[in-house]
Amino acid sequence: MIKIHLSSFRCDEETDDEIGADEPYALISTVALSPATVAGVAVPQTPLALDVTRHVFGEMVTGGRAEWGDFPAFWGVGNVPAVLGDPNDAIFIAGVVENDDGDPQVLRQVVKVAVTASVATTVALARSAKVNTLISDIGSALHIPTGVANLDAVRGPPQEVRFTSAELQRAEDGERVTSAPMAFHGDGATYTAEFQAVHVGWCPFKRVAGLGFSAPFGAPSALGMTRNGSVGLCAVVDSDGVPHLTWEEGDGTFARVGPWHAFERVAPYDARYPDGFTVPPGRKSYDG
Which residues constitute the domain of residue 16? Predict the structure, then answer.
């Protein structure tokens, strides 16, 4: 299972006609769809669940960046990790708004109503038509006033956030996969957002040594576990003497995991063994 979340948001250029710092926020709409094929036959994709996730960033000036960390996930729906093997089985639409006098939470509800109506009226349409209609309907909803003195300014049209099948598989395999930067422009302001797909839970075991590596017969094998912040690491040596690693990520602020460093020799060369390695008698192997 994976989660997809906003990972970075920065102000490249603040609004040129405003007094004080910008106060942008993002609304990301998520629609989970049924599979596009059943038993190899193409079928209309129906909406299974939807939600709108709100991110408020506070005051930002040119060069500013939102506080680093994992923002709430918009996949799975309801901030619950879910499987997403086919990118066509979900739609993610992001919109950015400058908060002048509106209410971000009220606008979130307005957009959610628009998304609900949009997917209900496009059930029979192809996914591409669903996406185009959603972008148009969400764009209209973002312009609905939720304040009195001034209208919140929309920073360009909404955009689809999309990962490829290969990127989703890399995420499922344990890599933090970052999207290409997406720029939002409007009223002289420019913001750039990036998104990440991240595996949740234990990753599959990975072989971390070449096929020619082995521990000598009789060398002690060991299981070691450690935890550094939000990342748990498990190292094991199998019955053939080959070490393997797996890891688990929590909800901390790690930007990425890896790449793992190559193995380095920690014992003198021993000609009695083909690979020149042995564990001295009485010593234990362990992680760290």
Answer: 2-199
Rg of the Cα trace of the chain? 24
Shortest CA distance to 288 belongs to which of 200, 210, 202, 222? Answer: 222
Nearest Cα to Cα of residue 96 among 12, 183, 145, 26: 26
264 CB-near residues (< 8 Å, 6+ apart) = none
CA torsion sign for 6, 8, 9, 13 is negative
C-alpha–C-alpha distance, residues 145 and 78, integer Å: 26
pTM for the model stands at: 0.70
Supply the DSSP symbol for 63.
Answer: T
Burial of 166 (0-12, 13-18, 19+ CB in 10 A): exposed
Same domain for 154 and 178, yes or no, is: yes
Residues 6+ apart with CB under 8 A from 108: 27, 52, 54
pLDDT tens digits, 36-61 = 888 888 888 999 999 999 988 877 67
Say how far apart CA 82 and CA 209 lie, in whole Å. 31
Mark whether 118 and 252 lie in a shared domain.
no
DSSP for residue 60: B
Q: Are residues 24 and 97 in the same domain?
A: yes
Smallest CA-to-CA distance from 68 within 257, 232, 254 is with 254
